[in-house]
Design brief:
The structure is a single chain. This protein is mainly beta. It has one domain: Roll (Thiol Ester Dehydrase, Chain A). A hairpin with a 3-residue loop joins β11 and β12. It is globular. The chain starts with a strand and ends in a 6-residue tail after the last strand.
Length: 272
């Protein structure tokens, strides 16, 4: 990541496989603490029905907002881990090769962690989403940059195929452990968790005309990229206008790694 030296803390060049898979550019840090991160869209963001995957913005949200919290940490030698991400969508992302830009700022910073908020906009300035991230600081040296991975892991032209996602009816989604989907610490990237959770919830609802309006993820444990990661959705409520889905993310050892709540809404539905 690049940074303006007058900002006080220079962000390390944390640019891992996940950022490359999702076609992101390095983050820029301004002197006032604001960060700017861009992602190049394209047909790879489509699902198998040809609809842009809103969860495909997860890595951009995680990195874009998280960079602002990380840059504001009180101790430069500390590091940060994501504990929560929340995102509210105003519209779907483009998939035409244009850029989406995330701008973010720290909202509250303490000795043990911080909160950041930001927004995602298209090239023409349309608001796509607003997001926030909570981060916990760890009192240890900043890990070295990860070895750059390939442009993308093996897969097809759609986002589910690109990530190697396997659907098992509507009961579970399986993500094979792939080092290229990791972060600088060598565990599954938080933005990829958000993305897969949104895909799993979409599959579970299965209602035409519904779109994801919000995603909330709480991260409980890191996920090593060895073995299969399962995303198990449970539809908590489904009416003609709103669906609420909880997605439980489990590691290969069976331990719970994250819990996501995904809300999907119908543009023309009438509440029951």
């Amino acid at each position: 990541m690049s940074a303006n030296a007058s900002a006080g803390i220079v962000l390390p060049a944390v640019f891992t496989g996940a950022e490359r898979v999702f076609h992101m550019a390095p983050t820029e840090l301004a002197a006032d603490g604001a960060t700017t991160t861009t992602m190049m869209t394209g047909p790879w963001m489509l699902d198998r029905a040809g609809v842009p995957v809103r969860g495909g913005l997860g890595v951009l949200i995680d990195v874009g907002v998280g960079s602002a919290v990380l840059a504001a940490r009180p101790e430069p030698d500390s590091w940060g881990v994501t504990t929560e991400i929340s995102v509210d969508f105003c519209t779907g992302p483009p998939a035409d090769g244009s850029r989406v830009m995330a701008t973010a700022r720290p909202v509250q910073i303490g000795r043990r962690g911080g909160l950041g908020a930001g927004e995602l906009r298209s090239e023409d300035g349309q608001l796509i989403a607003i997001g926030s991230q909570r981060q916990r600081y760890l009192a240890r040296a900043t890990p070295p940059p990860a070895t750059p991975g390939p442009a993308r892991p093996p897969g097809g032209s759609t986002l589910p195929d690109l990530l190697g996602l396997e659907f098992r009816d509507h009961s579970a989604l399986r993500l094979p452990g792939c080092p290229e989907l990791g972060n600088v610490s060598g565990v599954l990237h938080g933005g990829v968790v958000l993305c897969c959770a949104e895909v799993a919830a979409t599959s579970a609802v299965g209602q035409p005309g519904f779109t994801t309006s919000s995603v909330r993820v709480t991260y409980l444990r890191p996920v090593r990229l060895v073995g299969d990661i399962r995303f198990v959705p449970q539809v908590l409520n489904l009416s003609r206008s709103v669906a609420t889905v909880q997605v439980r993310v489990t590691r290969p050892d069976g331990k719970l790694a994250a819990i996501a709540t995904v809300v999907r809404e119908s543009a023309g539905g009438v509440p029951n």
